[in-house]
Predict the 3D structure of the following.
Amino acid sequence: MQKIHIFSDFDGTITNEDSLVVVLDKYSNSDWRLFEAELSRGECTPFETLTNETESLNASLSDMLELLDSTVTIRDGFSEFVAFIKQQ
């Protein structure tokens, strides 16, 4: 049997919410949207933006995971997609 690899975006494809936005809104110790604005203006790279955003987080991994578990939901149809792939 030939192996098939499926690549998928996560936020907005598998989940209804953007998980990083959820975490940043709750736990960032700065206005993380300013980093996004700098990126939009071409003042920094996507890597620099993500680095600045994640460095602004002030929470433990367990707190962030608990927040995501209670907030982020899987999109309708994704479970069926996974089941279909497993059958194939």
Remarks:
- Residues 30 and 42 are 20 Å apart (CA to CA).
- Residues 61-71 form the longest helix (11 residues).
